[in-house]
Write a structure and sequence with these properties.
Rossmann fold; Helicase, Ruva Protein, domain 3; Zinc Finger, Delta Prime, domain 3; five-stranded parallel β-sheet; binds adenosine-5'-triphosphate; binds magnesium ion; nucleotide-binding; DNA_Rep/Repair_Clamp_Loader; nucleus; P-loop_NTPase; DNA replication
Length: 363
């Protein structure tokens, strides 16, 4: 095989700009204005990445010592896993990093054939590169079939002198133990609020966003430590409204406002079963709220209700069940009646508990 033909076979990183989460590695300056902010403000270097201080320090040390191991990055969405590996690719191979990197993500087939053909042939092309390590990035590796993961074990070992592999996933338990043991694992935790805030403020200043402090707070709260979500909501709100305040952030995301949730909690705690069900259903329809969003927002408020500890445990475990059922697309109306039922039982339990403690005190 001549070397040109081999280079042809290697899908460039640019060729992988296929999925919704586009990876802009080349032509970074082109069309900046039309770029989504998540891409426009994707850090290019390790020093630009927010949070994960320990991971970044360790990786930098390993890179400086030219001792980068195979990597496994895992953690929830929007925490910088893909960003970090792309920054590593740049640091590892400088300007020629595109030719030295093979990135496969969820939009590419990742069955056993890909391991046997694409990945293997990329790893084998060592003779055309003089120095440095090639990098194979398997983004969203938890979607790889287990046959492909088993096949990868051998490939990783065979080409370890020339190629480094980085597996990225949300759920580490979907990666077979044999691959986990061949890689150094790093967990990307949700980003801290104060770090998100700092980063968002930079974007706000550069883009001239008219944001209020409560708007910023609402974005950070709704994101749950997901930087991608923060930037997307900020951009959507900036485009859709003159001002990015709490109300507009909630309208933009379809998430209920705190005062809406307080109202719903009031119905749950004070109304009879059928009244509570009816009122919440009407409110939900009027405002266009999804039950799982209500549940998500209800959770922190429930922790503040003065339920006896046993009752609180009961409510929380029942809500977890409800959340699971909603995630499995069960009927919303039935689940709403279940929610109202949980609170009805909780109120009865609370009553029994307080009668019991009163009797005990009398004795
Ligand atoms: N730690 C971070 N510092 C700065 N920006 C970040 C960070 N994490 C995420 N972002 C922003 O969010 C966007 C998405 O991040 P990235 O693609 O790295 O997430 P991910 O962890 O790979 O998520 P997923 O698991 O969904 O693939 C980036 O383009 C960047 O703008
Ligand atoms: Mg990613």
């Amino acid at each position: 095989m001549d070397s040109d033909a081999m280079v042809e076979e290697i899908p460039s990183v640019e060729a992988n700009v296929k999925s919704g989460k586009m990876e802009v590695l080349g032509n970074e300056q082109d069309g900046e204005d039309t770029l989504m902010w998540v891409e426009k403000y994707r850090p290019r270097t390790l020093t630009e990445i927010v949070s994960h201080k320990n991971i970044l320090e360790t990786v930098t040390r390993l890179l400086d010592a030219n001792k980068l191991p195979h990597l496994l990055f895992y953690g929830p969405p929007g925490t910088g896993k893909t960003t970090t590996i792309l920054a590593i690719a740049r640091k590892l191979n400088g300007p020629k990093y595109q030719a030295m990197t093979l990135e496969l993500n969820a939009s590419d087939a990742r069955g056993i054939d890909v391991v046997r053909t694409t990945i293997k042939s990329f790893a084998e092309t060592q003779q055309i590169f003089s120095a440095g390590h090639k990098l194979v990035i398997l983004d969203e590796a938890d979607a790889m079939t287990s046959a492909a993961q088993f096949a990868l074990r051998r490939v990783i070992e065979k080409y370890t002198t020339t190629t480094r592999f980085c597996l990225i996933c949300n759920y580490v338990n979907k990666i077979i133990p044999a691959l986990q043991s061949r890689t150094t694992k790093f967990r990307f935790a949700p980003l801290e609020s104060k770090l998100i805030k700092r980063r968002l403020m930079e974007v706000v200043e550069r883009e001239g966003v008219n944001v209020t402090p409560d708007g910023l707070k609402a974005i950070i709260k709704l994101s749950g430590g997901d930087m991608r979500k923060c930037l997307n909501v900020l951009q959507a709100c900036h485009i859709g409204y003159d001002i990015t305040n709490e109300e507009n952030v909630h309208l933009c995301t379809g998430m209920p406002l705190t005062r809406d949730i307080e109202l719903i909690l009031g119905f749950l705690l004070n109304e009879q079963f059928s009244d509570a069900y009816q009122k919440i259903l009407e409110f939900q329809t009027e405002k266009g709220l999804a039950l799982n969003d209500i549940l998500l927002q209800l959770h922190p408020l429930i922790l503040k209700v003065k339920f006896p500890p046993e009752v609180l445990m009961f409510v929380l475990s029942q809500l977890a069940e409800l959340d699971y059922r909603l995630a499995n697309a069960c009927n919303e109306k039935i689940q709403l009646s279940s929610l109202v039922g949980i609170f009805k039982i909780a109120r009865e339990k609370t009553l029994k508990y307080s009668n019991y403690t009163k009797k005990k005190k009398k004795k």
